[in-house]
Amino acid sequence: MTHNTAADDRDAGLAAQYEAYPYPERDPQDENHRLLIGSPSHLREVDYWVFGAQRPRSQALRVLVAGCGTGDGAIMLATQLARVARPAEVVCLDRSEKALSIAQARAKARSLDNIRFVQGSLTELESLGLGLFDYIDCCGVLHHLPDPIAALQTLEHHLAPHGGMGLMVYAPYGRTGVYMVQDALEKLAPLAHSPQERLDVARRVMRTLPATAWLHQNGNFGDHLSGGDAGLYDLLLNPRDRSYTINDFLALLDQAGLEPTALMEPARYDPGLFLPDPRLRARLSTLPWQTQAAIAEDLAGNMATHVAYVVRKHAAPEKPDPLNPEAVPIMREIPGAELAKQMTPDNMLPFHFGTLVVPIPLPPQTRGILPLIDGERTVGELAEILATRGVSAEKFKHVWQESFGILERLNRVLLRSPA
């Protein structure tokens, strides 16, 4: 009984937090000059990583954003769908009236008519009668819930056949220092105190936090620490804040009957990228991918979250063939010409995995291929253009397979879905 009361107290504290300090702190006026982009729920990622670039773009898409907060993911996806006139409905669910009002104001500022808002808890999804969804976004929510497995199972029950989800949970090593300060603040500013009182204590502590505190050494939280009251509260005063190693996260998915189609970015979970020693790479190649992913997390030390696209077990779509002459490559976000400019003279692409920068080797011809990728040209047409530059069909096939394999794992080049 005591455990349940404590759990209820934490949940009540969480509800109070997001009414007092809706997170992330957003001004609807900013919608006039920027669209925040991220993962999960970028439309091109959903098309590729969830549906294997096989689901027609003309097919209506039902989306649930479960715990939408102030709306970052929902506004991004609804805007991307509207820009290309895709038939869709984005349902935003959150129990915080204040957070929903901000998301609604952001949608209004963009004149989005493909989005609707429902106040309620995803733990009560069964009673809301919202139906099934082709895609469900649950980003930054599960790790705050009393029973994450039950919540994830509820979401799985609301997936349409062949549907999938985009998830984000906290990871422990990249949050080094956070939990130490959280523990101290829970002693100094107990949950029973009002959110305003707790925030005042946190501000005072942060003004004179000892230079030796691990949080000072962690470069992952500039956006939280400079994100106003909501950012500081969410980072340091959240009443319930779990974190998952990649193995913990995969176990959570398994218990809910789900499996990942991709961890974001896939290359981030390849320790061979930052362990160039040939003997180490040979040893790594004998290990299961889950073990390699865990090693990458252990050694990199800066993974503060895990983002994944997931589907029901044994339901992953077959990966499209990048060598199919009819396939249409598409840049995820950065134009190909811009990405090519980032390559160094020795054909390396410096890639940022959070605060870790890793040089990624690419074939020299990649520099010439990238600017040609416009989301309309087929692979066959790319081969024809390269042929005029003296690159044989066989050479192109080899170069394109290697280039696409690398850039896909970096989540930079994907394939377009059919019309």
Automatic annotation (TrEMBL):
Q: What name does the UniProt record give this protein?
A: Methyltransferase
Any keyword Transferase? yes
A single GO BP term for this record reads:
methylation
* Annotated Methyltransferase type domain residues: 65-163
A GO term for molecular function: methyltransferase activity
Per UniProt, the keywords (alphabetical) are: Methyltransferase, Transferase
